Amino acid sequence: MMPDFLRKNNGKQWKITRLFSEIGSSSQKEELELIIEIESKKKGDICRQLRRIGKCTLYEFVPYLSLKCSAEDAKKIANHVYKKITDARFERNFQYALQNIISIELSNKVSIPPMKPGINYYFRKRAEDERFWNLENIGAYEALKSSSGSGIKIGIIDTGVDYTHTELRNSFSADKGYDFVEKSSKPLDKNGHGTHVAGIAAGRNCGIARNSTLYSLRVLDEDGGGSEADVMLAIEWALKNNLHIVNMSLGSPEASDAFKEMCYYAASRNLMIVAAAGNDGTFIYSYPASFEPVISVAAVDRNNEHAYFSNMNDLLDISAPGVDIVSSYLDNSYRMLSGTSMASPHVTGTLALALSINKDAERVEEFMKKYAQYLDSPDNHDNSCIFGAGLIRADSMVNKLRGSSRILEKIKSYEKKEANIKESGIKKVFEVIKKYW
Amino acid sequence: MQCRKNNLENIIKGEYFIKINTGIYTQEEIDKVFEQLQKSGIELKHKYLTGTYHIKIADLEKEKSLLEELNKLKEQNYITKIEPVYKTKTFEDK
């Protein structure tokens, strides 16, 4: 159930989260319109001061004013009000106004971020020379020095995957997976969603687990719709073919107990199930993400701030980048998309790197949460309902797992040596006994 | 945790998940039940590893009467659960 503090603060929390998310995804000079609640008796003076920042308009009958200003100034004001972070010079110049602000929210006429999602993306350099911000933010490049996910089988339960794409073709073996929509062994993508997701999880340049093996399990048609019955078939396929992880960037607000039981069953057989938390941007559950054994993934932007569309609830496990993510798309192209669908495969890919070191799914999940990067919520509430355990960190997770595996190996080798010593000691005793018997 | 349910827009018409009471009946008896069901127009699509059966009523005009039949089997304790199959989808690009 939703914790009390969230039930009480749903609206306020949401507005603050959206405010910081929009400010974070805007360029510094971009103009935003803020609706500011102020002390009603001091309206005129506050407005006069704020006019030095941007166009300020007073509302006649309510204690609010609108301020059109740069994202940079909006951030300074929001930081002062909600995070108590102050820019000394800014505060000196606008002290009176800042002291009398009660709350801030974004006007609904917010300007859109500089790059619209869902557009084709062309690299300035070669794809293999590109450094992707989303991979940098979770420490994937560092983690790739220790593990590349080899020996790990990942199922992409989605709209299919274009396994002929240059990013992905080396990740597939002769067995491509299965198409549960058209009952065929050629699960090609006719939508693009699955290809994008697969690229993030294991693409050669834009992905994480670059040496793992991918399987396309097509359960969604060209419009992105499907049945949970087919998703359950795909999970069964994954179990029968000994896959280690499945990614489900899909969901529904409703689900059957049969689907829930399948997820529990699969998890009990050590299949790691990762799913997107959903893009409603509200306090809502989505399934399969909100089934307890499923790793539910929320999205953050490039500043590691909550993505405005990412669902919030007490069953979130972890966060990952999900805004303006570049990955493979249909026709051997690349596209920039946003959504929790994009956040989920970051976790899937990272888990593959970890499983490649240690196949104990429970331990890997424990490390995922333990070494996640703590993320702050704008008004210092318990933020697990927004970010889960925090931002997934591929570098710390892989390094710590590598370290703990080494320690385990050492312990085992000591135990072996000790056993040998004991054995040889017993032999010597027997030899002495034989000699003097 | 209880899933939120019963929005008809999200349901796939004519498809159901059912659970058979394996504690009381043998596989042979269960097979007989399915033979009867298939004769009356209920198609068995798949039996999952979890023991859930996915069934389909192709002729939607018969859906009401066939559901009544299934409910009778539930009353007789052959079937322990009948529930609809839900749609799922990709999350729209934001």
Order of helices and strands of chain A: HEHEEHHEEHHEEHEEHEEHEEEEEHHHH
What composes the largest sheet of chain A? 7 strands, parallel
Beta strand % of chain A: 15-25%
Q: Uncertain segments of chain B of ≥5 residues (pLDDT<50)?
A: 1-5
Residues in β-strands, percent of chain B = 35-45%
Structural class of chain A: alpha/beta
Strand line-up across the major sheet of chain A:
7-8-6-10-12-13-14
Throw out a few tags for this protein.
heterodimer, A: about 425 residues, alpha/beta, seven-stranded parallel beta sheet, four-stranded antiparallel beta sheet, about 20% strand, globular, disordered N terminus, B: about 90 residues, alpha+beta
Report on this model:
The complex is a heterodimer of chains A (437) and B (94). Chain A has 13 helices and 16 strands. Chain A is of the alpha/beta class and 437 residues long. In chain A, α3 (71-83) crosses α4 and α11 packs across α13. Mean pLDDT of chain B is 86; it is low at 1-5. Chain B is globular and about 50 Å long. Chain B has helices at 27-39, 63-75, and strands spanning 11-20, 42-47, 52-57, 79-90. Chain B starts with 10 loop residues before the first strand and ends with a strand. Chain B has 2 helices and 4 strands, in the order βαββαβ. Classes of the chains: A alpha/beta (437), B alpha+beta (94). Chain A binds chain B through residues 117-118, 158-159, 191, 193, 219-220, 224-229, 231-233, 236, 239, 249-262, 265, 276, 278-279, 285, 287, 290-292, 307, 309, 315, 323, 337-341, and chain B through 1, 3-7, 10, 12, 15, 17, 19, 45-46, 48-50, 52, 54, 81, 83-94.
SSE topology:
The complex is a heterodimer of chains A (437) and B (94).
Chain A: H1 4-25, E1 31-38, H2 43-50, E2 55-58, E3 64-70, H3 71-83, H4 88-99, E4 101-106, E5 119-120, H5 133-137, H6 140-143, E6 153-158, E7 172-179, H7 193-202, E8 213-218, E9 225-227, H8 228-240, E10 245-248, E11 250-251, H9 257-268, E12 272-276, E13 295-300, E14 318-321, E15 325-329, E16 333-337, H10 340-357, H11 361-370, H12 384-387, H13 394-436
Chain B: E1 11-20, H1 27-39, E2 42-47, E3 52-57, H2 63-75, E4 79-90
Antiparallel strand pairs in B: 1-3, 1-4, 2-3
